[in-house]
UniProtKB/TrEMBL annotation:
Residues passing through the membrane, by range: 108-129, 179-200, 207-227, 233-251, 263-286, 301-321
InterPro entries per the UniProt record, alphabetical: SpoIIM-like
Keywords on record: Membrane, Transmembrane, Transmembrane helix
A Pfam short name: SpoIIM
UniProt-recorded name of the protein: Stage II sporulation protein M
Superkingdom, natural source: Bacteria
Keyword field contains Transmembrane helix: yes
Amino acid sequence: MDLDKFIAAERPGWLRLDEMLARRAEDPWAEMTLEEARELERLYLRASADLARLSTLAAEPDVQRYLERLVARGYAEVHGGEVRRERFQVWRWLRVTLPQAWRRQRKAFGLALALMLVGAAFGGAAVAFDPEAKPVIMPFSHLLGDPSERVAEEEAQSRSPSGHHSTFAGQLMTHNTQVTLTALALGLTWGVGTLVLMFYNGVILGAVVVDYVLAGETTFLLGWLLPHGSIELPAILVGGQAGFVLAGALLGRGQRQRLADRLRAVAGDVVTLAVGAALMLVWAGIVESFISQYHEPVLPYWLKITMGLLELTALIAYLGWSGRGAERALPKGGRR
């Protein structure tokens, strides 16, 4: 193949596609005529074929890189256009969009979970081997005292709950909402801030768990944490997951797309995960205010523990399997 003649013949089509995509980027909501849409698709398919031909040749790397970026932008426009025209449906978003986004980015969730577990092991070991570490690690004054004394006090007050419960629940809800949103936003630090935040919250969790277990208050701990924690902790992890997805797009490791294209490619998943985490925190907050702060003899611990385990099982089933039918109907790598 005469490479120079090939490039000279195809360049006008590439430039025309580049021009059309630039116009779409400036005003993505502008309506396209049927002829313009057909021309865009034809030019995109032709550029894709040209890229495939050039990829077999070890020449003109600059032209290849230009075509790779052009085809990536064309792909986002041609296939992303279907998404914009779809009418938003709340039920479909809950049933398909959110769990699909979680599964697509499950490696980021796994990273957030691993960091929290490592932090929990560190925090638990610190409290177990050095009691002086407790006031350094614990962020809430209610957790600094003796666990058994707190359990006795909580159970005595459970018969006639006071503002103490709602105040403490409000502190925890505010803290966890801030942690979740901050974990997402710190993705902008190339993931460093999100990494530290996931580890630190694991440290707090591990310290609390070990402190109560060593005091012989495991049943109270499970009855207190599981009803809301089975949703709240995954919500924080989902916030960290969104932060790591954002960081991955910023770093662009192993990707040839431009930064703007990488961010555009993950924007939908990041927003979906953020909204999903917010909804989970709302549910956890309701449970925490009306169930978690009530203890025996008002609410049996076995009932609260069973509720927490059922919530966690339902959440795993939802994120793991909901919307898989719609997923199988798509080509590999496709999304809605």
